[in-house]
Amino acid sequence: MRVLMFGWEFPPHITGGLGTACFGLTKGLVKHGTEVIFVVPKAFGDETKEGFRLVNASDVSIDFKESLNQEHWKKFQYMEIGSNLVPYLDPEEYEMAVTKEVRETISGSQSVFSKQFTFSGKYGPNLMEEVSRYALVASSIASGNTFDVIHAHDWLTYPAGIAAKHISGKPLVVHVHATEFDRSGEKVNQVVYDIERQGMEEADLVITVSNFTRQIVLEKYGIPAEKVFTVHNAVEPVDRPELDGVQKHVREKIVTFLGRVTYQKGPDYFVEAAYKVLQKDDNVRFVMAGSGDLLNRMVRRVAQLKIATKFHFTGFLAGTEVDTMFAMSDVYVMPSVSEPFGISPLEAMRSNVPVVISKQSGVAEVLKHALKVDFWDVDALADAIYGILHYDGLRQMFIRYGKTEVDNLKWENAALNVIEVYNKAVYR
Q: Are the C-beta atoms of residues 163 and 198 closer than 8 Å to each other?
């Protein structure tokens, strides 16, 4: 089977778990003999391509005189978008969303398109413009390639998947890694919600990364249950003996939060729990690794609580920096308010770090050897952190059995489940 797959990012150029998941799943599919054409808005040339074809959308030419392309362009609306909608940006990059009107006609130099558009591949203020252009490029790619099924990852690529389906007539599978309700709570952005719902409605089948997310898709988007399948994420195994000798250079134990500093990830609860732990034991340092629109607020709150000497903000970490951070950590905490899955606890556990996770996370469905608390229960969160730091038997149990548990969560197993969904879509 050959798959035309649309993603928005690919390692090593990632901003979160989406790119990591796309890479792991693609490798798993290839191991089972599936041919994958993976399209990204911008390829940087240093991506790892293990048995599949990586297409750089920035290299694709478009003929705007073709009526088919003009027809697709008229259907799209784009807007300038800030970190309130896609919270991958630092606070200083935050801008209010401004809706723009799309031109009905395309002609010569007045067109918002060039024949070849160089995508940034990032989450900047012109994100929706890039999403719309990416969909137009997708129609060109679909018309020039042979494949059996289309796979679109998350809302940024749903318009591309829909365009490819309309051009080719092939079945579309959309992969829900997160929803607007996860990112924004009940104050959803209607434009993003509408794109998500249209993608799920036009898809032949929908994959969600957890039953937690599946329930949101059923209840909030009205998608029929028989159309939605859960395939849990996995984690890439690593063997980096050079990390065994990593030194902390501090005498205290280290508790780490690693993720986007946004509403969804629950950084507020981590800070409040840190304060409670430090009231009982000041031999602990807390690290918040990441960036996002709540970063400045977290810095101010840490100052208000007078725990700044025990609290560190590293900014965004990627690649080996993440593994080094885990190697220095004694506990990893993921207090997410709404987490579709959450790969980072798996990455911590494979590094022999015990984890505390929120019950409101998809990964809680597959992990037995992790402490689970309600994200809002700061006392329980603080008690869980304190317990792992001070009861060695508990700590060693989570390290030993947690590592074994995670080692069995392989992407090649997840890929088999995705192939089953492909077969259902193709032969239905």
A: no
Chain centroid to CA 406: how far? 19
Q: Which residue has the tokens 């929120």?
A: 358
Measured distance CA(137)–CA(73) in Å, rounded: 10
Instruction: Quickly list DSSP for 70-100.
Output: HHHHHT---EE--TTTS--S-GGG----EE-
3-state secondary structure of 50: coil
pTM for this structure?
0.82
Please name the residue that has the structure tokens 């977290």: 298
* Domain identity same for 286 and 154: no
Nearest-angstrom CA–CA distance, 179 and 272 = 26
Helix (H, G, I), strand (E, B) or coil at 383: helix
As given in the structure block, the two tokens for residue 221 are 């988007």
394 and 416 belong to one structural domain: no
Strand partners, 331: 255
Q: Which H or E run contains 386?
A: helix 378-390
Cα separation, 108 vs 64, whole angstroms: 9
Q: 169-218: per-residue pLDDT in tens?
A: 999 999 999 999 988 877 888 989 999 999 999 999 999 999 999 999 99
Structural domain containing residue 399: 241-407
User: Do 275 and 382 share a domain, yes or no?
Assistant: yes
* DSSP H or E stretch at residue 230: strand 228-230
What are residue 258's DSSP bridge partners? 289
Q: What is the CA radius of gyration of the chain?
A: 22
Is residue 327 located within the same domain as residue 416? no
In this predicted model, what pLDDT tens digit does every residue of 76-95 receive, in sequence order? 443 333 333 343 333 343 33
* Residue 147: DSSP 8-state: -
> Can you give the length of the chain in residues?
428
Whichever domain contains 174, its CATH number is 3.40.50.2000
Residues 50 and 412: their CA atoms lie apart, in Å, by 14
